[in-house]
Request: fold
Amino acid sequence: MERIPILRMGNYLLVTIQVDMHDRLAMQLQEDLTTRIAKDQARGVLIDISALDIVDSFIGRMLADIAGMSRVLDAQTVVVGMQPAVAITLVELGLSLHGVRTALDVERGMKLLEQSIDDQTFATRAHEDDGPGGES
Amino acid sequence: MATRLPELIRKYQDSLLAEWIAEQRAALSRKLIKESELEEQCSAFLRAVGQGASSGDLTTLDGAAWKDMKELLTTVSRTRGQAGYSPSETAMFVLSFKKPLFTRLGKELPAAEVAAEQWTATVLLDQLGLFTTEMYQRSREEIIARQQQDMLELSTPVVKLWDGVLALPMIGTLDSARTQVVMETLLQRIVETGSAVAILDITGVPTVDTLVAQHLLKTIAAARLMGDDCIISGVRPQIAQTIVHLGVDLGNVTTKATLADAFALALQRTGQTVVRVAAPRRKKPKETGKDRKDQE
Amino acid sequence: MDQVERADALPVRGEIDVVLVRQTVRTWSVQQGFTLVDQTKMVTAASEIARNTVLYGRGGTVRIEALVEGVRKGLRLVFEDQGPGIPDVDLAMRDGYSTKNSLGLGLPGARRLMDDFALASELGHGTTITMKKWKR
Reply:
């Protein structure tokens, strides 16, 4: 069965969805991504859906699930390139995609990923400075 | 037996024309079209009746023979509508022909035939009258549709305020159709300009009801899905009250009282800032001899 | 009275069929002259119901009909299955209701995306869902 290719760019994984996915393909992608995040110790995932002219509740949930699973694996997810007609339809459908960060395109998505990972690292470092007793 | 209408109309054309025009002048209280135009249209009508009757069928307006008549009536409807006549006044163009025609039929035909011919005439003229009214309606609808389209396009501009900042000044009452257009226009412009923040300014919106609020929230949700941030500005005290009373949940949508405040916030969010540049040194208004020497 | 200009029927038995239904509805809605947003809404609604037909209706069919009423053009989709039927239609049509992988957003969401939506279901006999959208 075909699989959606996952590219690695430094600390990040990049997925470009260009086909109209049937459900099993979408589930396979979810599985492959989580495996790769763990294997490559990726800090961020960028999913480009600019070629998708429809996102229904199944794909929507897949995206939300990927974001959730990545977070547990300590990676941030950003979905980029949602088409206007798709955005309007998703809102009408009632899908909120909570917990999924979005950006207009790959470039902005990358910036967002870098920013959020920086914030994370900063927070972690500040925590480490406190020391075991909580006092600096 | 074939109808004698076309033959009679042709034979007594002049007197019928004169009487008919007189009828119309009496029926139309306002003179909104020129005499000459009225005469022209009436003459054309009589010619078209003859042509239509030549098809032999006076009970239906289908068929090539009635094409000219239909075109004439469409023109009459449109011009009368534009002149400001009501649909009834417009239909009177056709219906006022009945009296002169019936009078003539009564005079020229033997008693046994009059009733049948008047019936044929009535059936025909009624159809033509109804057709005229329908054409009137349709041209009205076309005008309204066009005006609506114009208004929609005019009243939903999406303006680029700065790099990455779009503004949507909404003016007038928002209804379902308009909000749809607004939403689609905004999202399209977000893609085109690659902006990160959109300011929805509702200074010019008099009232907000639950439906409008929902539409606004949907627009914001859709923009968010595309990665864009939205700020609502121009919230007047009355609208603030309405929003709270209606229990509308704005969630985490930022609202600002003025467009200026919203713009400042938008700049912040896009990592930009406005800097006051030091005023340039002003040259002395008059050059005295001393200065000129200094410059040498 | 709606007049059917032309019609076609597709099987809805597996997930590949769901993709085919999406593509077919897309093509037909383009032909009927729908705007991009309306096309997307229809394809998404069709995807939701098609998936339900496969997962819960044990497979069925969809009839696609191009409608004409005077000068108005529209599209009608009729999904039919001989599955177990929907036990509580009111509940299923309520937002947020879900069973496992969710009959959840499918029905009320699809209804919001279409102009007309009618559901008939009989326990043990099957479900028929009729959806219509008119070109604005």
User: Anything to note?
Assistant: Chain B touches chain C at residues 184 (CB under 8 Å). The mean pLDDT of chain B is 84.
